[in-house]
């Protein structure tokens, strides 16, 4: 299991967070493949992975970085049954307020959409 580098007490106070979850009708191995495809398609960079869970960071150009911080996200997969996998998404971004909260929510919504799209493609291929 991936552990955070910082303890919760070391987490900066000025961080906006959002969480989401979904259940995929796929076994754990297929769900991992779908998440990896979603990460590649969504222009995210894998910071750390234990093969089942992923810590990722949004990638964007220099000009965009001057205006905002990248969203960081964790994708945690839990096997519900042999044919279902729960995917928990946790995102954060430096800064607080409605703009940063909206950015982290939008980034996780895009990531969820990419995971659902990749899961549909994996299910069709199977």
Please explain how this structure is put together.
- The chain has 126 residues and is of the alpha+beta class.
- It has a single domain (17-125), classed as Alpha-D-Glucose-1,6-Bisphosphate, Chain A, domain 4 (2-Layer Sandwich), CATH 3.30.530.
- It is built from three helices and five strands.
- It has helices at 28-41, 62-67, 98-125, and strands spanning 15-24, 44-49, 54-58, 72-81, 84-94.
- The chain has a five-stranded antiparallel sheet with strand order 1-5-4-3-2, covered by helices on one side.
- The radius of gyration is 15 Å and the shape is elongated.
- The mean pLDDT is 86.
Features:
single chain, Alpha-D-Glucose-1,6-Bisphosphate, Chain A, domain 4, 33% strand, 126 residues, 38% helix, alpha+beta, 3 helices
How is the topology of this model organized?
Blueprint: E1 15-24, H1 28-41, E2 44-49, E3 54-58, H2 62-67, E4 72-81, E5 84-94, H3 98-125
Antiparallel strand pairs: 1-5, 2-3, 3-4, 4-5
Helix pairs in contact: 1-3
């Amino acid at each position: 299991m991936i552990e955070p580098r910082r303890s919760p007490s070391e987490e900066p106070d000025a961080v906006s967070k959002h969480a989401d979850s979904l259940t995929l009708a796929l076994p754990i191995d297929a769900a991992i493949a779908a998440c990896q495809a979603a990460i590649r398609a969504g222009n995210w960079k894998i910071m750390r992975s234990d093969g089942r869970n992923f810590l990722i960071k949004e990638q964007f150009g220099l000009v965009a970085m001057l205006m905002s911080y990248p969203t960081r996200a964790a994708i945690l997969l839990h096997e519900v049954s042999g044919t279902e996998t729960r995917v928990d998404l946790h995102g954060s971004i430096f800064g607080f307020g409605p703009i940063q909260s909206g950015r982290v929510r939008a980034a996780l919504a895009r990531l969820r959409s990419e995971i659902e799209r990749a899961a549909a493609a994996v299910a069709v291929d199977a």
